[in-house]
Design brief:
The structure holds three protein chains of three kinds. By secondary structure, chain B is an all-alpha fold. Chain B is built from four helices and no strands. Chain B has one domain: Helix Hairpins (Orthogonal Bundle), CATH 1.10.287.3510. The longest helix of chain B has about 30 residues. By secondary structure, chain C is an all-alpha fold. In chain C, helix 1 runs antiparallel to helix 2 and helix 2 packs antiparallel against helix 3. The chains are: A mainly alpha, B mainly alpha, C mainly alpha.
Chain lengths: ~140, ~120, ~180
C-alpha cells in the first residue's frame, strides 16, 4: 500500500524544491564546522531531516528503495569505525590515541586532517542512526 | 544582591520543577517523557547561562575581538543534547512495545493489569 | 523576556490533556530555548537544539503517538497536594542554593578561570581551527566525542532490536509477526 502525499500540490512542489537544498546545506554545515557554527552532529541531523521529509512526502517504500535499511546499518557502524580508526592510525604513527599532530608533516595540517575525518565519522553515524530510528518507528503497523 | 543577576537561575529552577512535577504526577508514559525533556532543557539552560560573559561574542576566533564567551559549557551541552535525544528515542520505542503488550500506556492501568495476573 | 515565555510554555505543556497539542507545544519550547541559546552566545548549541529538539524529537513523538493514542486518559487529578508540596520544598531549597552564585554575565566567575582561558588562548595556535567549540570537541576532548558517537550508535541498535528492521516490500514488525517467528 503506497501512502504518499503527492496529491497535495503545494506540499509536493515545495518539497521537491527544498529537499536538494537541505542535503546541500547539510554538506555545507559538515565541512564548514571549523570556520563557523556547525560540525558533525548538526550536519547529520539536517541530512536525516531531508531524508525524513522525502519519506513523508513520497511514500515510505520509495524512501526505503533509495536509502536501503541495510545500508543505513552498515553506515552507522562505519562512522564509529572511522573515528576509532583515526585514533588507531595515530597510535601506529607513533603518537598517543587520537593525537592528531602525528598525522601530517606539520601539526596544524595534522590537526585539520584529524578533525575533518573525525567529524565526517560523526556525521555519517548520526545520519544513519536517526534515519534507522525513524524508519523503525514508521514501519511498525498498529496492532490494536 | 542584585535580583536581576539571578533571574536566569530562578527560571531554570521553575523549568526544572515543572518537568519534575510532570514526571511524578502524570500517569501517561508519553507525558512523562515530555516532562523529562523539559527537565533536560532546564539543565542545559543552567550551564549555558553560566558560560555567558558580559560583552563577549560567540567563541569563534576573529581578528580584533578580545572577549569571548566561555566555549567549555557549549561542548558539554552539545554532547548532552545528543545523548538526550538518544534516550528519548529508546524510551519511546519501549512505550510503543508496552502499548502492544498491555493495550494501554496509562501507568495505573498497567499496574492494575499486572496485579490481576 | 524570553525566559518568562519559556517558563509559560513549559507550564502549558504540563497542563495540556491532548497529547498532540502537548507535543507541538514542546516543539515550540525547543525552538524558544534555541533562540535563548543564541542570545547567550552559544551558536553551536542553538543549532543542535533546534535541529534535534524541534526536529527529531518532535517527529519521533508524533510517530509514537500514531502507534499509541493521542489523548491522555488517566484518572489522576491535575493538582495533587503531596507532589506539589514536595516540588515547592525542592524549589525553595534550590533557590536558597542559588543565592551566592555568580551573577549572569559576570566575567570573574570561577568557571572562567581554570581550563577555559587556556582553550581560548591556545586553540588558534595549537590547532589552527577558528571555531573553538569544534577544536575542543574534536581535538582536546576527542575521546569524549568518541563515547558520544558510540551512544548514538547504541541507541539506534536498541531501537532496531525493540522495533524490528524495516523489511522492503512488506509490513513492518507487529506483535503477531514476532510471535510467529518465535514458534
Amino acid at each position: 500500500m503506497k501512502r504518499h502525499m503527492t496529491r497535495h500540490g503545494i506540499l509536493r512542489i515545495v518539497a521537491k524544491l527544498l529537499i536538494p537544498y537541505i542535503f546541500l546545506f547539510a554538506l555545507y554545515v559538515q565541512f564548514h564546522g571549523d570556520y563557523g557554527p556547525g560540525g558533525g552532529f548538526q550536519a547529520g541531523v539536517i541530512f536525516a531531516a531531508g531524508i525524513i521529509l522525502y519519506a513523508l512526502m513520497f511514500s515510505l517504500e520509495r524512501a526505503l528503495d533509495v536509502f536501503h535499511p541495510r545500508l543505513m546499518e552498515i553506515l552507522a557502524a562505519s562512522g564509529v569505525l572511522l573515528y576509532a580508526g583515526v585514533g588507531v592510525v595515530c597510535m601506529a604513527k607513533g603518537g598517543a590515541f587520537l593525537d592528531y599532530n602525528v598525522l601530517a608533516h606539520d601539526h596544524h595540517h595534522g590537526q585539520h586532517l584529524g578533525i575533518f575525518l573525525v567529524e565526517l565519522g560523526v556525521g555519517i553515524t548520526v545520519t544513519a542512526a536517526m534515519t534507522s530510528i525513524f524508519f523503525a518507528f514508521v514501519n511498525r503497523e498498529r496492532s490494536t | 544582591m542584585n535580583a536581576l543577576g539571578l533571574y536566569s537561575y530562578w527560571i531554570v529552577i521553575v523549568l526544572m520543577m515543572t518537568g519534575f512535577y510532570t514526571v511524578i504526577t502524570r500517569g501517561n508514559l508519553i507525558k512523562k517523557l515530555i516532562g523529562l525533556n523539559i527537565f533536560q532543557v532546564s539543565v542545559f539552560m543552567l550551564y549555558i547561562s553560566m558560560g555567558k560573559v558580559a560583552g563577549g561574542t560567540a567563541p569563534i576566533y576573529e581578528e580584533g575581538i578580545e572577549i569571548y564567551s566561555n566555549p567549555f559549557p557549549h561542548v558539554l551541552i552539545l554532547t548532552a543534547i545528543v545523548v538526550g535525544v538518544a534516550t528519548t528515542a529508546l524510551g519511546l520505542a519501549l512505550t510503543v512495545r508496552i502499548q502492544e503488550a498491555y493495550s494501554t500506556v496509562e501507568e495505573d492501568a498497567i499496574h492494575r493489569l499486572d496485579n490481576e495476573e | 523576556m524570553l525566559f518568562t515565555l519559556l517558563a509559560t510554555t513549559a507550564i502549558g505543556v504540563m497542563c495540556l490533556d491532548d497529547l498532540f497539542a502537548a507535543v507541538m507545544l514542546s516543539g515550540i519550547f525547543s525552538l524558544l530555548s534555541a533562540s535563548l541559546f543564541v542570545v547567550m552566545d552559544a551558536v553551536d548549541v542553538a543549532f543542535t537544539e533546534a535541529a534535534v529538539g524541534a526536529g527529531i524529537a518532535t517527529i519521533l513523538m508524533l510517530g509514537s503517538l500514531n502507534l499509541t493514542s493521542t489523548r491522555e486518559r488517566g484518572t489522576r487529578p491535575t493538582f495533587q497536594w503531596i507532589p506539589f508540596t514536595v516540588v515547592l520544598l525542592t524549589g525553595a531549597a534550590l533557590v536558597f542554593g542559588t543565592l551566592d552564585m555568580p551573577h549572569y554575565g559576570d566575567p570573574d566567575a570561577p568557571i572562567h578561570h581554570h581550563v577555559a582561558p587556556r582553550y581560548i588562548e591556545d586553540s588558534p595556535h595549537e590547532i589552527g581551527v577558528p571555531n573553538m567549540v569544534t577544536s575542543v570537541l574534536a581535538s582536546y576532548r576527542g575521546f569524549d566525542t568518541l563515547g558520544e558517537t558510540t551512544v548514538i550508535f547504541t541507541a539506534a541498535v536498541g531501537v532496531l532490536l525493540l522495533m524490528g528492521m524495516p523489511r522492503r516490500g512488506g509490513n513492518g514488525g507487529t506483535q503477531a509477526d514476532d510471535e510467529e517467528s518465535k514458534s
